[in-house]
Amino acid sequence: MLDGIQKSAPELTQTGPMLVTHWGLSGPVVLRLSAWGARELYQDKYQAKLVVDFIPDIHIEDVKRILFQHKDQHAKNKVNNAFPKEFGLVKRFWGFLLEQESLDGDMHWATVPKSHLNAMALRLKQWMFEVVGKGQFKDEFVTAGGVPLSE
User: Fold this and answer.
1) The organism sits in which domain of life (predicted)?
2) SS in 3 state form for 88-109?
């Protein structure tokens, strides 16, 4: 979901495959969002907020329940080594999530505070990213406009 482009601009929402790269987010869903918001992004100098739901098929209350159950079932395991497979996340992304929550991957599940579990659930469902410009190579794959069909 691309938000905050202009107050008069509609909120843009897309669902689909997304790539998490070393320099940002990419993939079909990001390209579609940038296509639908091309004019607004240009007008706002490519400054916006992007809200990502990394597990759209799981309701936030279920995400919380899974995290709390996982904590109970894996209390003696390190959080970096044992994480809920239901989310379909890779270990490297899980490590990034822990880092963003200021959690040490070597801590045991038993010591993870409830507030962090709730924050992790919210982040997985509504992770806010700042759009601060074009991609690394400053390429534009999406254009707005074109040649009139009458010509």
Assistant:
1) Eukaryota
2) CCCHHHHHHHHHHCCCCCCCEH
C-alpha triplet 134, 26, 40: angle, nearest 5°: 45
pTM value? 0.78
Which residues fall within 8 angstroms of residue 103, CB to CB, at 6 or more apart?
79, 112, 116
User: What is the DSSP code (8-state) at residue 133?
Assistant: S
Q: Which are the contacts of 71, defined by CB distance < 8 A and separation ≥ 6?
A: 109, 110, 112, 117
Query: Which of 2.60.120, 1.10.40, 1.10.8, 3.40.50 would CATH assign to domain 60-125?
Result: 1.10.8
What's the pLDDT tens digit per position in 62-115?
999 999 999 999 999 999 999 999 999 999 999 999 999 999 999 999 999 999
Beta-carbon contacts of residue 73 (< 8 Å; ≥ 6 apart): none
Q: Which of 127, 81, 71, 130 is nearest to 100 (CA)?
A: 127
Beta bridge partners of residue 142, listed in sequence order: none
